[in-house]
TrEMBL record:
Highest taxon in the source lineage: Bacteria
GO cellular component: a single term: cell outer membrane
Lipocalin/cytosolic fatty-acid binding domain: residues covered: 33-173
Lipid attachment locations (S-diacylglycerol cysteine): 20
Protein name (database record): Outer membrane lipoprotein Blc
Species for this entry: Pseudomarimonas arenosa
GO molecular function: lipid binding
Keyword terms: Cell outer membrane, Lipid-binding, Lipoprotein, Membrane, Palmitate, Signal
Extent of the signal sequence: 1-30
Species classification: Bacteria, Pseudomonadati, Pseudomonadota, Gammaproteobacteria, Lysobacterales
Length: 177
């Protein structure tokens, strides 16, 4: 029964991610990602969300490198502060020759979507990601809270990659006081 409830939602998730767009695609940046260092928990600080991400709280991605070279990709979130935590489980495949910067993400077979790691800090504390059309984007950080000056710097950086910074929305990680 539990799997039956998740299937329609996961299908809608993938349709939303792979929906057609008139924006041109752009190649993954020519950077090298140290995949073992990239693994772990990343808090979604801000994003240009697709419709299934709208309104999610405490959103984070958890990555685990598998023995076969693929990546277990869990998206964890709440819908309300006093509600339960939800987890969508997917698998990502790093595309050969991309230096670890181009992933294909799959939450529901047979649907896949492309993800580019645009930039990651030298200490692997923050990362900027987008889809190839640059109409979806994510700001990741190892900590749930960051200051506004850092966020503004990341918005400027994303703009240089072709992401519209006015479309980015902050993700609430802790309740407002």
């Amino acid at each position: 029964m539990h799997c039956r409830k998740r299937w329609p939602l996961a299908l809608l998730l993938m349709i939303g991610i792979t929906a057609c767009s008139s924006l041109p695609t752009r190649p993954a940046p020519a950077i090298e990602i140290d995949l073992p260092r990239f693994m772990g928990t990343w808090y979604v600080i801000a994003h240009v969300p697709y419709w299934l991400e709208e309104g999610k709280l405490t959103a984070r991605d958890v990555y685990r490198l598998r023995e076969d070279g693929r990546i277990d990709n869990d998206y964890v979130f709440k819908r309300r502060w006093d509600g339960p935590e939800h987890r969508w489980q997917g698998v990502s495949t790093v595309q050969p020759g991309s230096g670890g910067a181009h992933w294909q993400v799959q939450f529901v077979w047979p649907f896949k979507s492309d993800l580019h790691v645009l930039e990651v800090s030298a200490d692997y504390q923050w990362a900027l990601l987008s889809n190839p059309r640059r109409d979806l984007a994510w700001v990741f950080h190892r900590q749930a809270e960051v200051d506004e000056a850092e966020l503004q710097d990341w918005l400027t950086r994303l703009s240089a990659y072709g992401v519209d910074p006015t479309e980015l929305r902050r993700v609430e990680q802790v309740p407002s006081s």
